[in-house]
Amino acid sequence: MEQKQYDLLDIVEMRKPHACQTNRWQIIRMGMDIKIKCLNCNHVVTLLRRDFDKKLKRVLVKHASNDITESTD
Could you tell me if residue 1 is inside a domain? Predict the structure, then answer.
């Protein structure tokens, strides 16, 4: 099975919509478990990574990485 690619601050769609009838979540923490926040009602849910992988439908918006290199003058 193909490994789904997601990162911190990505906007994702889950298989089932939230009780507030929206299905847009932002990943706000990643580790052994993953914490996601509903973008409509700001409800926060923590899932084990294994459960998150099963419930994830697709990544809607990839977060642009902020690779800022400091220059010394």
Answer: no
CA–CA distance, 25 with 17 (Å, rounded to integer): 10
- Condensed to tens digits (0 to 9), the pLDDT of residues 11-28 reads 999 999 989 999 999 999
Is residue 31, in this structure, part of any structural domain at all?
yes
- Residue that wins the pLDDT comparison between 43 and 63: 43
Residue 69 lies in a domain: no
Q: Which of 21, 19, 7, 67 is closest to 56 using CA atoms?
A: 7
Task: Characterize the bridge pairing of strands 11-14 and 44-48.
Answer: unpaired
List, for residues 49-68, the tens digit of each pLDDT value: 999 999 999 999 998 765 44
Range of the domain at 53: 11-61
Tell me, what amino acid is at 52? F
